[in-house]
Amino acid sequence: MAIIDEGLKSELQKHGIFVLPIEQLYNWGRKSSIWPLQFGLACCAIEMIASAASRYDLARFGAEVFRATPRQADLMIVAGTVTKKMAPQVVRLYNQMPEPKYCIAMGACAISGGPFKDGYNVLKGIDRYIPVDVHIPGCPPRPEALIHAIMTLQRKIANQDLEKGRRPRWYDEAAASEYTIPEYGEHDLQPPANPEVWQTPRNYRDVTLEEVKPA
Amino acid sequence: MESIEKIKEVVSQAVTGAQIEIVNSTPAAQQPALLVDRDHFYAVAKFLRDDPRFQMDFCSCVTGVDYLPKDDKPGCIEVVYHLYSVALKQGPIVLKARAPREIDQCHVPSLTPLWRGCEFQEREAYDLYGVKFDGHSDLRRILMWEEFTDHPMRKDYVPPTDYEWEPTPHDDTLQRAAQTQGVVPPTALAELEKAKKK
Asked: How many angstroms separate the CA of residue A139 from the nearest CA in chain B?
């Protein structure tokens, strides 16, 4: 992003002239008016509703209206356990959102399956199928945590570069903005995860399968 | 409400040929149940609903239980109905019916024609246990998707191996995580060693 000399900036401001790169203005407009898609699945939806209500007002941060249709929304807050039966519809809705779009995984269930991870119908995290920008841990996370997530997202949007070569996904003509919708298989969703979106996290020391295989 | 023995007597006299057995659940629960054979199950339930002494007009819960074959007892899938009477404020009467575990023989009569509330609950029992309800108007899966083939609440259900990553695996989750392509945290290695030795 273009950097403007601070001294010059303050000098000009004294005369009522405001100088900033187009990117900053553009990103400021986008981050200050994030319209979420109302998408509560389970208990985290109650906390999302609470943070949109008057005490923890989310409208202060630009999320004035929760749109009912994905076509007009730019943020999807996946709040609650994603069941395997619901997962294709979540991906379908995310595909229907126009770019630029963001996703927040709210609560332990949306991040990784949460307390119901071993359930027969529980998808172990929505980030298996769609790219998630912010994860909020908690069960459920407090409204302040959701507000912190919105603020983190705002910071992420503010730092997005529009110059060629450093563009985010949504500004890149070659990048995909629609993700494969999983099919209902006989025992599990097919595919169980989207390999373009989700790779097995390997943050442990490398242990080979041979060492670990039970005898 | 009368004791369970009295109820069994009354019902046996009213529904001829029914083989009813009192199945005592644990002393702590204190909820003995009437185990009825499949052929007279519908008749017994209808009697309990219509008779003026009982008037069981509310079926509050339908569930399935999976018993694996143990010792000399053959396994079965049991369907349990909890009946209450809102008119006479009495209850519950617990009705049970058993069916063999094999999928093609696992069917019991449906009580949906007697109580509408059974409709969704019987669909759930079909979805999760595989027990078919004869006479149900719309028997299809309710929690899992239509193309799903397993019955998840059966004791011999094997969940799919999508345990590529487990942050704190233990017990059989650890075994499952080790079998898939995932890595196991070093702290869990010791536990795996112990389990191997056992």
From this structure: 17
